[in-house]
Amino acid sequence: MLNFILFLQPFVLSMQTLFQLVSKDTLIDIKQVVATIELLDEGATIPFIARYRKEKTGTLDEVEIGLIKSSIQKYRDIEKRKETILKSIEDQGKLTDELKEKIEACFDAAVLEDIYLPFKPKRKTKASVAREKGLEPLATLIYKQQEREVLSKAEGFITDEVPTAEDALQGARDIIAEWINEDMIVRAIVRQQFERHAMVKTKVAFGKEDEKEAQKFRDYFDWEEPLKNCPSHRLLAMRRGEEEGFLYLHIAPDEEQMLDILQHRIVKGNNAASEQVAIAVKDAYKRLIKFSIEFEFRNISKEKADKEAIEVFVKNLRQLLLAPVLGQKPILALDPGFATGCKLVCLDDKGVLLEESVIYPHPPQNKTRDAEEIVRGLMYKHNINTIAVGNGTAGRETEDWLHKLHWDRKPQIFSVNESGASIYSASEVAREEFPDKDITVRGAVSIGRRLMDPLAELVKIDPKSIGVGQYQHDVNQYLLKQSLDDTVVSCVSQVGVNLNTASKHLLMYVAGLGQSTAENIVQYRTQHGGFRTRKDLLNVNRLGDKIFEQAAGFLRIADAENPLDNSAVHPERYALVEQMAKDQNVSVDELLKSKEVRKKIDLKKYITAEVGLPTLQDILKELEKPGRDPREEIQVFEFDPTIKTIHDLHTGMVVPGLVTNITNFGCFVNIGVKQDGMIHISELANKFIKDPNEVVKLQQAVRVKVLEVDIARNRIQLSKKQAE
């Protein structure tokens, strides 16, 4: 713990307080918080901590560890801001012991900025100009609200720069308005009103109501609702409309009510000075406070909306990365098209490109017989019985054509979501893999590999381009990337990675590795013909003990000399497993193969100060199914053959579909036409649900009822509950 304290030197004085704040934020016991932060600061990754340090954290999962990580980072950022503020005030010669203590005791970012506001370097303001004209004494006199002869007092401040008494009063009010704006209690009152009563209001921008691009925001041309009730997707839609110039957006409580509250707080008495203060209060709120706090709440609401949208994206991405897999089977993959033909590729069971061709089974060429011969010939030549068809342009038509062919042995035909395949095909990654192939070949390869192993292929694509989630291009891009990268790392760690076959793009997402280490692993593998043991990793350039500790448990070596090298058992626990085998008078290999032997193991016998029951239970569970892929096997799905376009749909019909995207307000379903239909959350189940994920998951086959078909707007409304 001493090293930990030394690491936290900037935070030593408030270390315990910080831990308490994180504990309060996350609702996690402070002992677990301290242990987790210590591990994180030592360089441990979240998947490693969750899997291999359960005793130390009290079996916290990845979500809980992530909450601790985010919370402590928030407070450390506040501590850094304090340092900047203290230095700024000290440089001004205005830092008192009382003020310093007040700043150091503050752990609220907004309140901290309120404390700093009077000392914050300012550009020229109305108040600073008035001070330069010598009007601050008049402002002080008026603000006491005891003076009845204000006008005569103001006359005493007339100068060449202040020609009239009214000019003097105006300057005094400008100073008072700034004082009110910088009053912490006043700002707290306004902030509280915003929290409780702020309304989000939108209006169509002048002259934009008839523009074609504006119509997607028509619902918000005249919209009003409480900010606290506004869901993230709606707020992000409004903000997008504002950014594109079609909407005006404002966030504020009722102005008259807000002014009444402030007047009651600030204005005392009923005299001439009080009247001047009342005018200053109104000016302070409308000119200074309102815009400042509105800006603050615009940011707060945006951060909240971003967080919710990112959470939606992460849920979808996790489901997509862990989607059912075909496994290692040879595949014929098609990237469909009409005039340009269907590009097809043959892949072996490792995803290696064997052969490529182009067929033209659709108009205008209609070379159906030639296309059939090519497909049959390639499938026979490469012993292929699985076809992957991209679901983009001509996808449905190509599927139908393949189904209608006369097969001696009908192949499995899968529709594959090709979102992001075009992004991959034009990427540096694709050019590196296939430098002499055009983008259509690369796209077809990506479609085929995605069916074999979605995780291994999707890691090569920018997660934003995968096509799931909501408003991913509108949220904080840094936080989005961070969350998505963490999700990929988590999924890769959950599945495990074959050390001798994985691409560097997959390896770089293994906990503890990164791009350069992944490249070094591939280089070592190429030079030495692969890895025979996990310990060989320590021979990789710049892969030391710490990286090995973090990554080894997530890397697999098929057919390794030590069977534990193909399991999730960490090398640090090999000796423990060997002792278990020895105690049962069997080898480790026999221990893995014999269920009866494993039943005889008394886990309590192996509990130590370092290894508790949670870790031992994980080890035993892994010994039962070492290295098994936790993902399900993919199932063939077929659309209704009578439905090709949106024009084939009519209200009331029930059709099969595949869930393609899940949002907070419902989900989208591919029913075999170009446009996905939408199921509102209220139409998902015959019970109240808060989250669509309660009843549907990505790529799930569902039956849906068509509620409405809007051909003009290209929208399809569906219901799941009415189809059950």
Question: Describe it for me?
Answer:
Helix content is 48%, strand content 11%. The chain has 30 helices and 15 strands. Strand 12 (666-670) and strand 13 (677-680) form a beta hairpin. The longest helix is centred in the middle third of the chain and has 50 residues, at 272-321. The chain has a 5-stranded mixed sheet, sandwiched between helices. The two termini are 58 Å apart. Mean pLDDT is 92; it is low at 1-13. The protein folds into 5 domains: 2-119, Arc Repressor Mutant, subunit A; 126-308, Tex N-terminal region-like; 331-452, Nucleotidyltransferase, domain 5, CATH 3.30.420; 506-624, Tex RuvX-like domain-like (DNA polymerase, domain 1, Orthogonal Bundle), CATH 1.10.150.310; 646-723, Nucleic acid-binding proteins (OB fold (Dihydrolipoamide Acetyltransferase, E2P), Beta Barrel), CATH 2.40.50. Helix 9 packs across helix 12 and helix 14 crosses helix 16.
Write the layout of secondary structure elements.
Layout: H1 2-7, H2 15-26, H3 30-41, H4 46-52, H5 54-57, H6 62-91, H7 97-104, H8 109-116, H9 126-132, H10 136-143, H11 150-155, H12 165-181, H13 184-197, E1 199-204, E2 222-226, H14 232-243, E3 247-252, H15 255-266, H16 272-321, E4 331-335, E5 342-347, E6 353-359, H17 368-381, E7 386-390, H18 395-404, E8 412-416, H19 421-425, H20 428-433, H21 439-452, H22 454-458, H23 477-495, E9 497-498, H24 504-507, H25 515-528, H26 545-551, E10 555-556, H27 574-583, H28 588-593, H29 595-599, H30 613-624, E11 654-663, E12 666-670, E13 677-680, E14 701-710, E15 715-719
Parallel strand pairs: 4-7, 7-8, 9-10, 13-15
Antiparallel strand pairs: 1-2, 1-3, 4-5, 5-6, 11-12, 11-14, 12-13, 14-15
Helix pairs in contact: 2-6, 3-6, 9-12, 10-12, 12-16, 13-16, 14-16, 15-16, 16-23
